[in-house]
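Problem 12. The chain below contains 218 residues. Write out its predicted structure in token notation.
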Amino acid sequence: MLEILNNLDQELLLFLNSFHSPFFDTFMYLISGKLVWAVLYLSILVHIFRTYGWKTGLYLLLAIVLVITCCDQMASGILKPTIQRFRPSRSPELSNLVHIVNGYRGGKYGFASSHAANVFGLATFCSVLFRRRYLSLFLFAWAIMVSYSRIYLGVHYPGDILCGMLIGIFFGFVIYKVLPLIKSIKIDKPHIHKDWKWDITTWGSASIFVMILVAIFK
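Solution.
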């Protein structure tokens, strides 16, 4: 059974990884980065402090740090060294078959994807925290896009991404549910500032637009 699933995972990877172009090479390489999303992360933090105030905002900031830490440690600290599944880019069988961008191959092992775990953890936590439909749609679309970039770059199987996604959703939701147990944290009725200009979707979309321009004119 495991062999069948592994073969399906490899076939799906090779299929998805086969669609590439110079534009998407640059675009997906940028999307997979971390610093390029600094403005998005900053807008989330500012939105948290403006919505919930400084005291609760600090608790929520620590909660986000905890979500990312749990996701990253589960994926990279526990599963990768335990399962020891080679990344496609490092696999003796597939390394010469997958499309690699800018010589980037990642670390030795890839199961599960810490990228997917982290972005889905953040997307899940912020979605249940802010409870705004369009924001949730944007955040999960962003998480899917970042996760897919790892397949495009040939450093993760779809199965790696799926497991990372489940890890992120689990920790993002569970840690949010634990917060009300701390009496000083009031998150039941967030105050939405409709006139606020630092909207998360605006700055996130702006970051994507800049990456598109870079990919076009590189």
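Discussion. The chain has a mean pLDDT of 91. Students who got a different answer should revisit the alignment rule from Section 12.3.
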